[in-house]
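Please decode residue identities from the backbone states below.
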């Protein structure tokens, strides 16, 4: 079936995204975008399968409804199915929604079908080692991290009894507990880093590879501009001990990280990182595997609308 033959759009809704979201978005879709079909994700990773299905079924516009993780999954499904010509729309309904930050989302969801709102968006690509030892590949639209932040993320996702109890009590409390426990034992790590093919040995606290300047719900490393088209922002945090990291985190939370001497930023086309003790790799909020990892920009851009 050719693109567009199945009606104008399909919404792929993650009912588990966001905090106590209720049914507001589903109701808005029904009233503001009644011509769209509506599919719901049933488990983590399902957004990838549904994104692929939407392309195969010939939808011209695929609307991801959820947080950055849902958008990322749907984008991966669309791209794996060769759907570069499909419009990828996004309704921010998650916790962080960093992809949409700084943009002005449509007031009425019907506006997502307005082609005047389309914009061309770079897509990041990352390869990494999966838990089973094979090499994995993902596209990303927001950011990736390797180091302190990805270790905190891994700890947060561990299915330990303590984590289960804390998450049931309060999600933010569970996140803070993971951060404190990780930071209490944290030592900077030795990595082999290649920026645009230039190799170096470095001791770092964290490496972030950014497509958008925001992470964790609007935090920045001191700069609110995205990298230029065709580039990624490689942001290293290095040269600080445990106390210094805690101080830097405080400044990041206050939005006052600009100019901090531990933050080193470079616009690059490729990044490669490897460590003697493999580090977790976080892609658009999900721990997908571990180092070695390579990051670059995908050859085709996506048409996105928010
Ligand atoms: N039906 C479901 N039940 C449980 N988890 C799901 C379901 N569908 C998708 N997921 C998973 O939910 C996770 C979180 O989704 P998402 O990232 O969109 O929301 P969020 O974390 O609230 O927002 P953000 O990423 O902006 O902080 C994703 O990793 C996704 O795989």
């Amino acid at each position: 079936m050719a693109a567009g033959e199945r009606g104008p759009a399909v919404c792929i809704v993650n009912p588990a995204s966001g905090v106590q979201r209720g049914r507001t978005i589903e109701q808005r879709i029904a009233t503001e975008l009644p011509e769209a079909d509506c599919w719901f994700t049933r488990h983590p990773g399902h957004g990838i399968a549904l994104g692929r299905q939407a392309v195969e079924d010939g939808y011209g516009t695929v609307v991801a409804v959820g947080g950055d993780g849902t958008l990322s999954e749907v984008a991966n499904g669309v791209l794996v199915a060769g759907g570069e010509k499909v419009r990828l729309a996004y309704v921010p309904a998650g916790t962080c929604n960093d992809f949409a930050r700084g943009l002005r989302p449509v007031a009425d969801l019907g506006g997502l079908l307005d082609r005047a709102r389309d914009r061309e968006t770079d897509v990041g690509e990352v390869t990494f080692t999966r838990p089973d030892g094979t090499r994995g590949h993902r596209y990303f639209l927001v950011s990736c991290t390797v180091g302190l932040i990805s270790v905190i993320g891994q700890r947060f996702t561990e299915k330990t009894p303590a984590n289960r109890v804390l998450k049931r009590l309060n999600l933010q409390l569970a996140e803070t507990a993971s951060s404190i426990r990780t930071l209490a034992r944290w030592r900077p790590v030795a990595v082999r880093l290649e920026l645009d093919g230039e190799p170096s040995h470095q001791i770092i606290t964290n490496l972030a590879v950014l497509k958008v300047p925001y992470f964790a719900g609007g935090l920045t490393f001191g700069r609110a501009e995205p990298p230029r088209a065709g580039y990624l922002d490689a942001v290293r945090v290095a040269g600080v001990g445990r106390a210094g990291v805690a101080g830097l985190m405080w400044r990041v939370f206050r939005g006052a990280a600009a100019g901090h001497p531990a933050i080193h930023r470079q616009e690059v086309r490729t990044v490669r990182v490897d460590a003697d003790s493999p580090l977790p790799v976080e892609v658009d909020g999900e721990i997908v595997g571990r180092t070695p990892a390579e990051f670059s920009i995908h050859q085709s851009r996506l048409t996105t609308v928010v």
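Observation: The chain has two domains: 9-117, 124-298.
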